Amino acid sequence: MSEILLKRILQKISITLLWCFFLQLNASAENGIPVNTLSNNTAYADEVTGRVTELSGKPLLDVIVQIKGRSNSLVLTDADGKFMLKADKGDVLIFKVNGFKTQEIPFTGQKVINVTLLEDDSPSDTFNLLYTTQKKTTNLESVSEIRTNDLTKTISSPIYGTLTGRLAGLSTYQSSGEPGNDGLSLNLRGMAPLVILDGIPQTFTSINPEQVESVTVLKDALATAMMGIRASNGLVLITTKKGQEGPQRIGFKAMYGFSRPTQLPKTLDAYNYALLYNEALTNDGRPAVYSQADLDAYRDGSDPFYHPNVNWQNEILRKETPYSRYNVDISGGKQTAKYYVSLDYLDQQGLFKESDANANSTNSSYKRYVFRSNVSLDLSKYITTSLNLFGRLQTGNEPGVSTSTLYNNIINTPANAYPIFNANGSLGASQDFQQNNIYGQNYMSGYQVGYTRDFRVDLAVKADLQKITPGLWFRALSAINTYLDQTTVRSKALVAFLQSKDGAGNPVYTQYGTPADQTNNLITNTQNRVFYLQGEFGYTKNVGAHHFDALLIANNDYRMGGADLAYNIKGFSGRLAYNYKEKYLAQIVAAYNGTSERYAKGYGYGLFPALGLGWNIKKEDFLVDKAKWLNDLKLRTTFGRTGNFNPNNYYTYNQYYTSGVGYNFGTNTGGTVSGIEQGALANPHLTFEKANKFNVGVDAVLFNNKLSLTAEYFNNKYFDLLQLIGNSTQITGANYTVRNLGERNYSGFEFQLNYHNNIGDFNYFLSPNFSTVKTKVVFADEPARQFAYQRFTGLPVGQPFGLVASGLFQTQAEINASAKPANLAIVPGDIKYVDQNGDNIIDENDYVAIGRTAPTLNFGLNLGANYKGFDFSALLQGVTNNDVFLTGNSYWAFQGARGQAYEHNLDRWTPATAATATYPRVSVGTNVNNQYGSTYWLRNGDFLRLKSVELGYTFPISWVKKVKASNARLFVNGTNLFTITALKNQDPENYFNAYPIQKMLVAGVSVKF
After folding, report:
1. What is the H or E stretch that residue 527 is in?
2. What is the pLDDT of residue 42?
3. DSSP calls for 822-834
4. CA-closest candidate to residue 462, choices 388, 547, 381
5. Where does residue 848 fall: left (phi above 0), alpha (psi -120 to 50 degrees), or beta otherwise?
6. Taking 70 as the threshold, does the pLDDT of residue 985 lie above it?
7. Is the dihedral of CA 645, 647, 649, 651 positive or negative?
8. Which of 394, 435, 302, 378 is nearest to 5 (CA)?
9. How far apart are CA 142 and CA 169, in angstroms?
C-alpha cells in the first residue's frame, strides 16, 4: 500500500515539476527581450555594454540595469546576461535582481562593464506577521523571528527542535528521543502556542527547515488578536518559501551521521543487585533470598543458567545509530510566473539491534518523505493566482511489543532476572517475568509499521482593484488538508521457559505462553480533515506624510478530528495601521469570531480588540542628525483582549441522563429494573477563556547597525479559566462540570541582542537572549483548607506541594523524640519530616509549598564567526530556577516484586554510611514514609546544553564554477553534544527513563547551482 501511495506522490511531484518548467519557459518567452532592444534612447555621451553573471559564471536574465536617479534609463539583461545603455561620465549604474545583492558601479567612460552579483542572504528588513508583513522600523507587535540559515543549524526532525534557545520568550521541552516521536513541546510566555502554517492553523511539526522562509513568534495581543477565540496562548507562525523573480536556482544538501543517547540509566549488575536486595529484605525484617553461594555465582559467572548476569542494555541496544537526510529545492521565475519546489527525505534509525533472520525490521525507526510546491502565476496585469501543495509520508517502525514497552523492560529488568537462553536454547524466563523475555520481545515479537499521510492544497487568487481606487486589493483563499494515521500490527506470541532442576539435578522446563500464529491488524489511529475559506480586502493609502494600511478578513475554519464531533470557527477580523513619517505609530486590530458547536447560543462568540502605539524617537529632529551612533530607537506598547477555545468541551451546557443502577419494582423481587440517573450537572453559561494582555518594549539599533537589541515587559491576565468547583456538595449525588472560574497572571521580561562586527576578513557575531515568566494563581475555587499555608491561591501556577524533609533518622532515640506518621514503623535510615502544624504527627496537614518560587529563566547564546571560507557557529541553551522530582521506578530501588536498582541506590543509608548517605535505607516494594512527595526527592534541574555546533568550509568560487555551481560547502554539525547539570546520571529533560534523547554528529555537503 505504501509503495502505491509513494508512486502517486511521485507522479504528482513529476507533474508539478513539469508545470514549473513550462512556466519558466513560458515566462522566458514572454520576457526574454533581444539585446538590441535593451538600450534606452535617451541621448547620452557614451555607450556601455556588458554582461551580468552570478558567481558560477551563469548569466543572469532580467537584471535591472539603470542609471541612479534616472527612472527612464532602465534596461533588462537578456538570456545571455547582456545589456547595453548610454550614460554620461560620473553616472552611477545600478544592477538589481531578486535574490542577489544590489551593486552600484560608477561610470568613468569604460566601454564594457561586466558584473558578478552575489546571492543575498542578509536578514530581511520586514517581519512575517499574521496575514501580512510589516517593516521592522514601523512594527508595534511583540514578535521574534528567525530565518532558514539559523533553522538548519540544529538537527531535529520536528521543526520545533530547531527553535530551541534562539527566540526570547519561546522555550522547548523534549521528553523523548524516539525516532519520529521526539516528544517536543513549545512554551510561549508560559502557555502552549497555536502553530500556524502559511496563515492556517496546522499541526505540521515534522517538516524540513529548508522549505521554511521564517518562523515568527507572535506574543502580544496586537500580534494575535485577529485569531480571536484561538489567540490567548500566542502563535508560532511558519512561513514557507515562495518563488522569487530571478534565474532558476537549484540547491542540494546531503547529511549523514550517527547519534547516541545523551544519558542511559546506570543499573546494577547481578552481584550488586542481589547483595543490595538482601540488605533491603533485612531492613524490612524479612529473610535474605540470596545465599553466599548465590552471590559468588553471580560475581564469577560460573552458573549462567541459574545465576545469570545479563546486561540488557549491551544485549539489545546499539552503541550508535545512523541518521541521514537529503534535500533538493528548485526555485525561480519571472514577473508573471514564479515557483519554489522542495523534496526532502529523512531516515533515522533507532537503538534496538536487529537480526538477519527476520525478513522485516524490528528496530524503532522513522522515515519521512516531504514534498512542497509553491507556484504563483499572473493571470493578467491585475489578477494573480497561487497554488501551494504539501505532501508528507511518514513511516515509523517498531518491535511487535512497541518501542516504549521494550525500552521500559530493558531498563526495569534486573540483570539476574533470567538468562537470555536456557541450556536447551529456548528463551529464558522466571516466575516474576514469565514470557516477557526481552531478547524475544526485540527479535521475535513481530513488528509494527505506522503510516502517516498528510496532503494539503492552498489555492489563492488576488485581484488588484486599483481601477476602483488605487491601493485597494482583494484576495480569496481556500485550503483543504487531510491527515491519516494508521498502524499495521503484525504480532507474534512469545513462549519462554523457566529452567529449574529436579531431584537428580536434571533440567526441568516450565512453559510460559502459548504458541500461536502471527496476528495481523490494521488500526486507524486518527483521521483529520480541514476545510478552510478566507476572503480579504486590503487598502493602502498615503496622504502626504500620513500612511494608512487597512485589512479586513472573513474566514471559516471547519475541522473534523478523528471520532470527535466536528466544529466550525468563523468570523471577521480587521487591522488598521497608521504612521506619520514612520515617526508616530498607531495600530488597532479586532476580531469577532467563535463557534456554535461547543457552547449555548450567545456564549460562543466574542469581540477581541487590541491597540498599539509607538514612537520612533530616532526620527525626531533633535536626534536624526545628532546621535550618529544611534541608528534606530523605538518605544512601543500594546494592550488587548484575546480568547482561548477548547474543542473538547462536548455540549456540557446541556443536561443529560444516563443509565443508572438497577432497582426493585413492585412485587418483582427476583430481579431489578434498569434505572436512569442524572448525569453531570449542566453548565448553560459555559464560554471560552479570555486574557487581557499588556506589553511594552524598546527596539534599538546602534553603532552603524552592528548592534541591535529588543527588551520587553509583559503582563497577561487570564480569566474565565475552566475549573471544577472546589467547594462542591455531594447532596445532589451528581458530578459537576467545569465552570469559568479561574484567574491567573503571567508576567515577565524578555531580552534579545544581536551584535556583529569584523576585523579585516574575520567576521563574527554574538546573539544572547533570555526570558523570565512569573506566574500567580489569582483566584481558584479551591476547597476550604484548615491551614493557610496549604492554599495555592497567590502562589505560582503549578506550584508543587509536599513535605519538607529534614534529613534521615539516625537513631531510635531521635525517632522517639520526633514527629512521625501514625501507624508506620519508622526505623533509622528513614526520612525525617518537619511537623508544620505542631501536632507531633506527620500527615497531609504538613504539606506545604516546596521548591524554588523564583521565575524560571530560559536563555540561549548563539555565536559564530567566519574567515576566508571557514565558518563556525554554536548555540548554548539552558534553564535556571528549574526543579525536578526524581521518583518512581526510574529512581527508587526494588519497586515491585523484582524491581530494578541503580548505581545511585548504592549511596543508601546504612549505619556505616550514615554521615554520607544520599538515599534512604533500601526496602523492597513500597516504603510509604520514604516515598511521600517531599523535598528529599526534589532536585536542581538547572542545565546548560551545547545544543548545536557547526564547522563549515565554503569552496572558492574559482573551484566550484568549473562544475557550473555557484556555491559548495562542506560542514560538520553536532547536536546535544554535552550538558552541564547537577543531576547525576540523568538528562535534565528526560529524567524518568523514557527513550533517551540523542546527541548527534553529522557531516554534510551543500551545493547550489
Report:
1. strand 519-543
2. 44
3. TT----TTSEEE-
4. 381
5. beta
6. yes
7. positive
8. 394
9. 10
